[in-house]
Structures are given as C-alpha cells and as structure tokens.
Amino acid sequence: MADLIIRGGRVVTPSGVGEYDVIVEGETIAGVTQQGLVSGDGARVIDASGKIVVPGGVEPHAHIGGSRQPERMPAEPVSKAAIHGGTTTVMDFATQVPDQDLHFALKEAAERWEGHGYTDYTYHPIFCGGTGTEAINQIPELIRGGFASFKIFTTSIRPPSAQMQNNKTDFGRLASIMELIAENGGMLLVHSEDDDMVHYNYSLAQERGQWDWWNMHLIHSNVSEDVSFRRVIRLSERTGCPIYFVHTSAKEGVQAIAEARSKGMPVYGETLHNYATFSAENYKEENGMKYHTYPSLKSPDDASELWSGLVDGRLSTVATDLVATTWEEKIRFKTVADVTGGHNGIETRVGVAYTEGVVKRGMSLDRFVDITSANAAKIFGIYPRKGAIAAGSDADITIIDPDFNKTLTMDDLNLPDYSIWVGWHAQGWPETTILRGKVMVEKGKLLGSAGFGRLLSSRSISTEVRSGPAC
C-alpha cells in the first residue's frame, strides 16, 4: 500500500519526462505510473500540478566544519540549507592530518555528521601533503569498505601559513595513488593546478603590486589549469585511473576534459555554479572577495564556456565547493595570499542551475537532472539508489515551482549571514524536498529534523564509469 503519492507533476525519470504519479512505500519509490491509475486511499497525496518533479539533488563537493575548523559551519546548518534547496545527499571530505591515517580522517568526519544531518551524506578521503605509504596502502581496504573515492591537490594553493594545511601531493605519490585506485575500482578527485606556476605568480604579484584580492585570477590562472589538467590526464592514461576534476574554472580545463573523453578515457569534470555565473570582474566590487572560491573566478568568456560544457555534456556535474563561514570570516582576509575560500551556495545550486540552464539556455530537464543529481550519483557509486526517480530507488524527490520568479533576498535563504546570490533573479526554485519518503520541506516550510540523514557507506563505482566517459 502506498504511503505517499506525488500526483499531477511533470516527472523526470531515467527513461524520460512525462506526466506521472510517483508512488512511495516506506523509504523507497514503489513505482512511477500514469496519472490517476493508483488510488490515494490511505496515502498522503502531494498535489504537484504545474510543478516539476526531479530526483533529490546530489552535492558532490562540500567541506563541512568540525572541531579542527571552527570557522566553518558544521553539518546541521549546512544540511538544513541543502534540504531547503532541493539537495538530499551531501558528499563531504574526510581530510587526513599529518601523523594520522585515513581511518582517523573518517572518524573525524563521522563525528561531524552523526545525529546532525538533514540530508544523507558520505565522505571522500583527502590525502595530506607528503602522505606516507601507510595511508596510501589503505586505499584497497577503504574501497572494499564502501569509501570508493579519494581526493588529492596538485598544489598547496597558497603561500605557506598557519591558516591552511598544505595538502599538495607530488606526482611521485600521485602515480602510486592512481595505480592503487585503478587496481581496486575507485575514483580520484583532483584539485588540479600547476604548483610551480601558482607560486611563481605569487612572486610576480608581489613585485608588480598586485597583492589585493581582486588579482586572484592572475595567480590561479588559465594556463596553470591547462597545463595541470593535461599532466594529470597523461598520468591517468598511463595508470588507467578514472579522474574527476573538481571546480573546473577555465575554458582550457573544459577543452582538456573534452579531448580526454573523446579518446574514451574515464575523465569527468565538475564546475561550480558561482564560477559559471560570475567572473573575475566581480572581485572588483566592494568586499568582492565574497565571490572567491579556489582556484578563482575567471573571465566572462570562461564562465560562458562552463555553462556550454554543462549543457553539451563536456562537463558532468555542477557543485559548490562549499565552505560556509560567517560574513566576518569571509571578508576578514584581503590579499591574494590569504582570502578565505569556499562558496556558501549549497542551497542555491539546484535553483541557479534551473534558471541558468533550463530557463536561459534551453537545457533539457533530463540534462538538468544529470548535472544536479544523476551524474554525481553514478560517478561516486550511489546510482540508482540516489539520483533517479525509479522503482527501487530511495524516495529522494524535489519538487520545483517553475512559477517562482523573483530577486533573491536573505529571507529566501537559510544560511546566515550573507549570500553572494542576494540580488540575483531566479526563475524556478525548489519548494518541497523529500528524503527517503519523509517530507523534509514542504512549500518552503521545514518539517524534518536534524539526525534523519544517514551515512552512505556502501559505495561501489561501476565498471562502466571506471572504463570510459559514462556520463
């Protein structure tokens, strides 16, 4: 017997878009049927007439704060904002710290989330700079245990300081990491910049008086992304390791990914909705560092190419690289060497992608679901449990109101105490979010509670995803 029926909406399923009823029993989707075929007797019925019904969003890239990073907001407020914004699964990171292994990193991540999440969640372990062979050799065990994706940085990002741990992985260690991931069925996320170029650019900036934050795109440059992406792709080709480039920011990155995919390589690209919507010109505004996420915003032409890549399939996902802080922390640092990174837009990701992709650029609803939900679920081994409206999938469902048409204010959002999206005009916005059959948000009102979210600890990445550009 159905517990919940979503009736009358335009539903996006893996087999296409149509006017369907979605039948939920317990925590899963029991079926998707023609409208009116199933009686609503005994079930709660949500009228989705005139609305768009899509899988709950999957955020593939978020950094949640914990005891080691008190300046970052913790899981509870971040996941609350995510569920309001139509995202039902958040992928956080378990960051290795010096003198500790990856199991310690996973334990720290669990402490951040257990009992606090409004969304389901999982973690990508991150290798710290100069990691030893003991941690690297834990890759097979962790993949078998369901944590199948790992992240490295090819740069230390900023000059040495106490503010930021150096997580740079050299290419010697990277080759070993790639080999083990390839052999054991994992996926590697890469923050890819050329470290030599980045730090030479810092030296040039000092000499040329370009130390203010609005010069960030001169440090974390297009050519650095181009060279680094191609170097990582070459090592991937040698080792057979599947690659997911995080926060692609430049047209050169899009092109490098597209070339690799045209050769049949398992290479995937992510961009951020702030990268695709704003540009380095916004840095020049008062307190323009509020827009910054590492590596950097680039030119308007780069932003346009990022949207083109999302529409045409060269890029696979849209994410946030979330680091949610207070306004005071976000504007505290004002030079290219220390600006606070991270984008607090976990709530706006789905709505902005709908407005910019579907409304402004004619993106199909199927493709919209790909970039906001399905592709991340496929790449990181949780599909079709997540990312699909289909029989047997978790009943993670977002209902979008296409008639929402207004300029955003802080009253529309749920993360304090600022947003770069205030003043931005939205057309279409999530209004109701369901997690595993439970209505968490209905017409903007929070009904669910913290702690309902669960750890997704049994991720297994498909052979199709690991062997070629599957999505």
State the gist of this model.
The protein is of the alpha/beta class and 471 residues long. 32% of the residues lie in helices and 22% in strands.
Task: Walk me through what this model shows.
The structure is a single chain. About 30% of the residues lie in helices and about 20% in strands. The protein is α/β, with parallel strands linked by helices. Helix 8 packs parallel to helix 9 (about 250-260) and helix 13 (about 350-360) packs across helix 14. The longest helix is centred in the middle third of the chain and has 18 residues, at about 220-240. It folds into 2 domains: about 5-55 and about 390-445, Urease, subunit C, domain 1 (Roll), CATH 2.30.40.10; about 55-385, TIM Barrel, CATH 3.20.20. The mean pLDDT is about 95. It is built from 15 helices and 17 strands. It is globular and about 70 Å long. Strand 1 and strand 2 (about 15-25) form a beta hairpin.
Tally the helices. 15
Q: What helical percentage do the residues reach?
A: 25-40%
Highest CATH level, the class of the largest domain: Alpha Beta
Q: Which superfamily, in CATH terms, is the homologous superfamily of the largest domain?
A: Metal-dependent hydrolases
Task: Write down the overall geometry.
Answer: globular
Q: If you compute it from the alpha carbons, what radius of gyration comes out, rounded to the nearest whole angstrom?
A: 21 Å
Q: Tally the beta strands.
A: 17
- Biggest beta sheet summary: 9 strands, mixed
Q: What is the domain total for the residues? A: 2
CATH topology assignment of the largest domain? TIM Barrel
Protein structure class? alpha/beta
- Given as residue ranges, the uncertain stretches (5+ residues, pLDDT < 50) are none
- Quaternary status of these chains? single chain
Beta-strand portion reads 15-25%
Mean pLDDT: 97
Termini Cα gap = 35 Å
Architecture (CATH level 2) name of the largest domain:
Alpha-Beta Barrel
